[in-house]
Amino acid sequence: MTDIPLLSLTIFLPLLGAVVILLIKEDKSSVDNIRKVALCTSIGVFLLSLLIWLQFDNSKAEYQFQEKIRWFSDFNFYYHIGIDGISLFMVILSTFLTPLCILASWESIKIRVKEYMLAFLFLETVMIGMFASVDILLFYIFFEAILIPMYLIIGIWGGDRRIYASFKFFLYTLLGSVLMLIAIVVIYKLTNSMSIADLQGNYFSTNIQMYLWLAFFASFAVKIPMWPFHTWLPDAHVEAPTSGSVILAGVLLKMGGYGFIRFSLGMLPEASEFFAPLIMTLSIIAVVYTSLVAIAQTDIKKLIAYSSVAHMGLVTIGIFIVNSQGLEGAMIQMISHGVVSGALFLCVGVIYDRMHTREIKFYGGLVNRMPIYSTVFMIFMLGSVGLPGTSGFIGEFLIIVGSFKYSSIVVIGAASGIILSAVYMLYLYKRIIFGVINNEKLKDILDLNLREKIILIPLAIAVLLIGIFPNIFIEPMRLSLDLIISNYELVNGK
Amino acid sequence: MAHLIIFLPLLGFIFSLFLGKKFSFKATQILTTSFLFISALLSWILFFSFLGERETEIIHIFNWFTSGNFIVDWSIRLDSLTTTMFIVVCSVSACVHLYSIGYMSEDPAKERFMGYLSLFTFFMLMLVSSNNLLQMFFGWEGVGLASYLLIGFWYHKPTANNAAIKAFLVNRVGDFGYAIGIAGIFYIFGSIEFDIIFNNAENFKDHSIEFIGMTFSTIDLLCFLLFIGAMGKSAQLGLHTWLPDAMEGPTPVSALIHAATMVTAGVFLVARMSPLFEYAVYTNLFITFIGASTAIFAASIALTQNDIKRVIAYSTCSQLGYMFFAAGVGAYNASIFHLMTHGFFKALLFLSAGSVIHAMHHEQDMRKMGGLFKKIPFTATMMWIGSLAIIGFPYFSGYYSKESILENTYFSSSSMASFAYTIGILTALLTAFYSWRLLFMTFHGKTRSDAKTFDHAHESPLVMTLPLCFLALGSIFAGIFFAEFYIGKLQYSFWGDAVILHKDGHHYLPFIQTLIIKSSVALGVMLAALIYFYKIHLSKILAHNLDPLYSISLNKWYVDELYNSFFIKPYFAIANIFWKKGDEKIIDGYGPNGISKVISITSGYLSRFQSGYLYHYAFTMLGGLVIILTWFIYF
């Protein structure tokens, strides 16, 4: 291991870029420089995270690249960071999507460019920091800090009803955050430790576990989001600018799934076993209910937002059936969803930038004018539908395979996504892309420009890469997940 | 060699996708077509090497993914079942590629079309060469995708778009069963590799499993789930509605995908899994029942359709029914043999129909045809050959395979066998009738088309007629040449372990039964001749007098209407209720909006206390004091 604190560098490089941007005075001539600095910084971060992946040892279950500095002298709080198989791809997903988002806002963000880029780079730091935290308090700080740039991005650069959207978002997350904070205080009181690594196991009495589990559930269920705590998501997506939606769907929803694996399964196995039927019920409702709601939508972004809830329903099923197929499937499904739904939002952004509307009715026949756009959109649509060979299939199918052991109702609920997801996605694709152009305004719409190709093609490659060579992604996470599974099975006597 | 067969079409697709625009469209056409011909040639070589006694060969490519003990490999399984599918798929696909050069000559997107055809072929080959259920699922969904793309190829037509979506969705209903079936097989057998499943199948003969609160025989349940997938792909009764609509796609597509290859994937699945289906007693009864019902149901619709392609489409559906009930009674070899001969003669029929449509400037309605024999004698001859094969005229390919199916069904001990056998004979009669109805309406009698179209009707170019010749050869000789291997004396050495064979020797049907079959076929032809050739006005009188029956047949038993009002409309209605009532009224209404309303109302009340008037505060203080004092005094 080298002496360079690689992980800290990855976390704080975006902040460094932000400082540089802060020094640039914003005027017409320097706006482009601001964008370039932001882009270069985020690409640098992405390369660093790839370096971490390259040096990552697949044969270790515990945290790697650890850095630990005492934070307060009187308390057991540490600046303790590290990466294991569970957090590795969450970090890479964040660093992969950020440069694409910055590129996507190159032209669409015209006002307050400097502040926008600052917010985005700050967002990147806290996202990576959250996934890399080993100390629970540190995790909580990052977890909550994400809301600040996110509020700003929706609130300043958002759509017309952004106040309502951020109010809803706030109301839901507030409830969860408060309860999670209480749970964290209780954990510290009981164990005098804040280390995620040390607390993996079964350190709490059954009774305490139940309360702690519910407190964490309140926070994660809102984030992921589970039915019926999902209604903030469509509104937030619709009002957020394109890149905001990408991060929201691509990374922020994963915080819920990540939290469930780390805290609920890892620290509270008995309670997880007890509450699993509740999760299953809510998840199956989510898959069926939101898939149905999706098809009735008239706004493209809302449709994709609802499809996210359905896909995340599969993830929660995968997590709480607690076996290799289920957990690995859930992880892959989260990565895949991050890429696919991020890409779908970017696709919506492409036509929104041109026509300034997201009404499905407005469009139709785009294939006549935009063949390349139609092709990449098709790949992401198929990824969302879960066609074998795309990323969506691997996760979805592993979860179906894993859930057969759990219960036949759950397997039917999980598999119903096979039909339902195809219904709304194909119907959407037909209405936007196929047919003839009837709308006069669409007659001169242009196909993807170079910048948009640079954004969308890497995502398309990622979708196929995960679909055809999923082992690259499953192998690093295997041992870390196995550790959680074996602990869970030991505690629950399976 | 097997690698080349499978990956050449993929190469063709990649070329047409990325480089198709850079070169002239001819480069794509020549490249993809020649790749397919190489694949076809190689697959025939491979097929002949399996005519002798050759062991099953498994070629491992690489590990797709591993999760726990769920291990999925990319691999190629070569045995006589795979090679049979190889020759059918590659030969028909090569013919269709060549034919499309002519048929699509006026289309602006030739590269895309050729690319999709090659992509389809690749997925189909992956499907049939798989050594586990999941790679098969990969091919299975992949052909579904290619079919979706090709049905909707003319994306400016709304009907084509709707048909494409319908095809994909109905197939996905089947795939839903298939996916759960795979999950179940992994749960029971701990693997999805064929050899492991087959070797352990017998151990689970009397095993039972709980599913949605009921107890089932394990193998019956698993096979039933897999069969749901097969029903979707092979358009069996209930999930058949997509196939006739799929005729919206270009005719070469109908020939390749919706007649010869993809729709037979369901039959292939049952044959491939035959060592497992062997033990699924009740599911086999169900398969026999569905197969036989589909056979007669689809044939009854084909009787009255006027669109030349729809007649052939329903005929495909009906023939698939034959293959399924053969598989249901355990005659997997007869089933696959019929799959092969059917592949040739049905592709021939479709491509000939395409040639007719081409000649008639995209007219598909047979009521506007007639008398075309004089104009396009070659195409008409080809159509005659195809029709002779499908009705099982002696020594044509269909004769051997259909006879073998009926024979096996007659001697089967299955309790559904006599039902299936009776239906089989009845359907043979109907098949003869609608085939000759098609011939007479299209090629004979006086023309009913307008003079201009009729005068311009012309024989198709060589690139279109040549593939017809190849397929005609297959339709005529596939039976004579290969019957011995598939269903005759050499069947045991030919099949090996590829499918389960029942070693009860070879029986011949009693003379009286063969007589019944042959005379019912002859009766069908004669009736068609009577109504559509000699007494053309009879058809109208019959249609009028048999009205309820005629309407049912013409309107396809109203299944689409039924589905529309029972599934599709309620689906959208429920979706809207969930959205408007569930999300907006209940969850938002009692959730965030409700809370904020409650807060604003209560804070409205609370704010009244801060009125700013001194006497209000004084009064409140006094009231508080009274309460506190009372508290202290009494408690």
Structural write-up:
The complex is a heterodimer of chains A (494) and B (635). By secondary structure, chain A is an all-alpha fold. Chain A is 75% helix and 3% strand. Chain A has a two-stranded antiparallel sheet with strand order 1-2. In chain A, a hairpin with a 7-residue loop joins strand 1 and strand 2. Chain A is globular and about 65 Å long. In chain A, 61% of the residues are buried. Chain B has 27 helices and 4 strands. In chain B, helix 16 packs parallel to helix 20. In chain B, strand 3 and strand 4 form a beta hairpin. In chain B, the strands form 2 sheets. A two-stranded antiparallel sheet of chain B has the order 1-2. In chain B, strands 3-4 form a two-stranded antiparallel sheet. Chain B has 635 residues and is mostly helical. Chains A and B meet through helix 7, helix 12, helix 14, helix 16 and helix 17 of A and strand 1, helix 5, helix 6, helix 25 and helix 26 of B.
What would a concise description of this structure say?
The complex is a heterodimer of chains A (494) and B (635). Chain A is mainly α and 494 residues long.
